[in-house]
Amino acid sequence: MNRIRARLTPYLLILPGGLWLTIFFAIPMLYMLSVSLMTGNVIDGFRLTFHFPTYAQALGLYHDQLIRSLVYGLIATALCIAIAYPMAYWIAFRGGSRKSTYLFLILLPFFVSFVLRTISWQFFLSDNGIVLGPLKSIHLLPENFSVLATAPAVIGGLTYNFLPFMVLPIYVALERVDHSLVEASYDLYAGRIQAFLRVVLPLSLPGVFAGVLITFVPASSDYVNASVLGGPENTMIGNVIQNQYFVASNYPVAAALSFILMAVLLLGIFAYARALGTEDVLEAAAG
Amino acid sequence: MSTLTVDDAPASRTPDAPPRRARRHGRLLTIYTWIVIIWLLLPIAVMILFSFNNTHGRFNNTWQGFTFKWYGQLNAYPDLTGALLNSLTIAVLTAIIAGALGTLIGLAIGRYRFRGSGMTNLVTFAAISAPEVVMGASLLSMFLSLNIPRGYLTILIAHVMFSVSFVTVTVRARVMTLDPALEEAARDLGASPLATFRLVTLPILFPAILAGGLLSFALSIDDYIITSFNSGSTLTFPLWIWGSTRTGTPPQVNVLGTLIFVGGVVLALANAFMARRRNR
Amino acid sequence: MNGPDPVWLRGLTRPRSRRAVLRTAGLSAAGLALAACGIPGQGHQAASEAEMARFWRKQKRHGHVRFANWPLYIDVGAKKNDHPTLDAFTKETGITVSYDEVIQDDADWFGKVRPQLAAGSDIGYDLQVITNGIQMAQFIALGFLVPLDHSRMPNYRRNIGSAYRDPAYDKGARFTAPWASGMTGIAYNPKYVTKPPTRIADLWNPAYKGKIGMMSDVQELGNFGMLLDGVAPEKSTEKDWRKAADVLKKQRDSGIVRKYYGNDYIKPLTNGDIWITMAWSGDIFQQNVSEGTDLRFLIPQEGGNLWTDNMTIPKTAQNPLDALMLIDYYYRPLPAARLAEYVNYVSPVPAAKAVIEQDIAKASGADKKTLQQVAGSPLVFPGDAEYAKLHNYRTLNKTELTTYQSVFQPIVAG
Questions:
Q1: Does ipTM top 0.85?
Q2: What phi, psi does A45 have (nearest 5°)?
Q3: CB-based contact (8 Å) between B119 and chain C?
Q4: Interior CA angle at B130 toward B124 and B131, to 5°?
Q5: Distance from CA of A286 to the nearest CA of B (A)
Q6: N or C: which terminus of chain B has fewer CB atoms within 10 Å of its end residue's CB?
Q7: Any idea what DSSP says for residue C393?
Q8: Residue A41 burial (C-beta neighbours within 10 Å; 0-12, 13-18, 19+)
Q9: Which residues of chain B are within 8 Å of residue A182 when distances are taken between CB atoms?
Q10: Cα gap B105→A12, rounded to integer Å
Q11: Do the chains contact at B150 and C116, CB–CB below 8 Å?
């Protein structure tokens, strides 16, 4: 009897949480798939007609925004790596006793709501605000110069909001690097740059991978930054999906776009995982 | 997602003192890091500053003098206060529910090998890495199809959904480093499995559960995208702020944001302080 | 033929593992369940007179009304968030009013409340103000609005302007009671725009690159596109819409538009993010009075839009009788006058003008000047010259609606 109970234990343990995830994560995906294959309108209702051309129609109308989102996401992720890595390296290797303090400072922005942070940036960068106003009044900048409503503003916002997500995993990976390995490479006449490139960097890659994972996906699918900091030329696929659901009430197209976005991102992640040779993706993500 | 909390960082074995040229590089890196940290904190400073702005009109745009008065008028916008309360209660409930569910899953995956573990791992990973827009949109699709009205409850459901996996991963990492010898010892001393769990396993896991719960709390209180898809006419703090950007964000938003910020900082510092005392 | 191919037989009869069978069964069950799915439509039969009478007979006063409106659309008192007309209403009837400026854009608002009304749940408001247009037509077609019992609205019957008794968008004025009418024209900030604009074509001027605001409402936008082409929107055809959409798309692609706004163009116009924009007449007046700005408004030479915002009661309202009383209250000359004096929009109550003139006689100094501006303003009491330049939205039936939206929506949304 005890043996059977022991066998059942893991299943009982995952039952409540697993049920929740199944009902509210897995099944909605199926619903979204079915909505994407429906036709109709708000007044007459939508019916499941397995209308696959919706996908082609959605892609045809909004492929610009989809590509733009991926590009913005990639650039923001690359910028995040470029900015975060030196910082994580410095904290891990030279932070000394004050490592926790620096990490704490980096996490500090998270105590303020994400929307509030982005709005603060909008205020900070506004055309005649704190920064640009004085510059314009001394004629250092033309009157109609604006930072907002441009692609750099949106990408900047994305980079800003996701930087801590990149710093932490890289820091954790660098932290774990056994210093005796580095010392050993010095003993073998490696210069500092060589030691970094051939010992530290490869060992930190799982951290970079984890960072890319939790940065690229949300960055590409974000719509808050584009909405607050961007203009009509910078709308991202997230904006389009939200608009199709709530303004145009065009549920099939909205659902189709969501699906396409998810498929593209999943493909990207697995391709990246393959390229890096990371077998157990979950291990890397769990840090 | 890193399971490392800030005060968990192990003491490092510092390398030998670097040669002089390296020290100059080191200083460059130091300055660089501080510049980035200042950049990260810039909008927060702006937010705090303008909570003291003596603005006269509807818009909190130009500096018009220093005042404390907004701190005395916290409830000037009842629906803002209501939205903040919604956010807080949802976050607490999410932390509790997701904490419980996630701990159970984390225990299962971390300790046992069973048929569904691969699938569970996959779903957990998917729930962490799926884009928020997709998760929100799919939940909305389901609610629309089943004609379920959206409001407080649907927000709570969505928040628990995306928090469970984070708690799972946190707890799982801790469970895997749990020394089974401790539990065996308890069993040898005659404790039943339930008692062992309650008196040995749970206390050891508690920091990880707490960390997971705090993470859920933070994720829930700040969530905008998934909430906006599933909120109906219920407002949470981020949703209210978003709505207010159209007509002018009142200084009360800055005040409440500052208060939450300060509160969070105090809590974190207190936590670090207590951890240090505990370790001593 | 020797009978079925043995390869087939083997394939069909190969023992399947229990898991595989369960999996297939599960998926097909899910598929069948989903196939039965749909999102219910809500086309609706209009309520009959008898049903309406029965409905209103059952209603009682609850002492409270929840009012959803647009920003900058009601009088504001000295304390900055009190409203004298609402306070007077409460004092007289004992009905408290909670007033929220939550409507920014008809399409946004409709998108938000539609699912709730469809599910029969409370949207949080008993009274909402929506513009005559696509969403109004949808509200009515979907049966989301409570028919108004005119027999319980004495002030309305007595004082409503004749132009509003039987509007094209709501035959017999069954569901709507006008709150205010307004005009869409061009607003600009003279600090940055030295040569005053006069035409819609000025919104296409590359000199204002990145500083131009346009509206996100497809009917406002579409109308301006058509007027630019010299087409009267009321009689436009699909061909006209596509031509207008092309012109608008060119404007968007040239990168000169800063953003497509709902009601939120006022702040950017004030702080210089945009210099020239499509705008609503009363907003500019109110902004100048309350913030001391110097923004200008004009109706373009090619023409402007005329629209009417209407008070309506959603079908899931919790306090319909109190809402009806509030609606009727605003048809008394005094509150109507106070409203027009403050918001500077066209009042549906002609008798309000007499009250304003009385106020002018009693006022002095700066107040008097402001009131005279209001009474004499063609924006508040338009004359024939103004009406000649103003155009209504194109009334769209169900099929035209989808076409119209699909033509203009990508300009705003994409």
A1: no
A2: 95, 165
A3: no
A4: 155
A5: 5
A6: C
A7: P
A8: middle
A9: 15
A10: 9
A11: yes
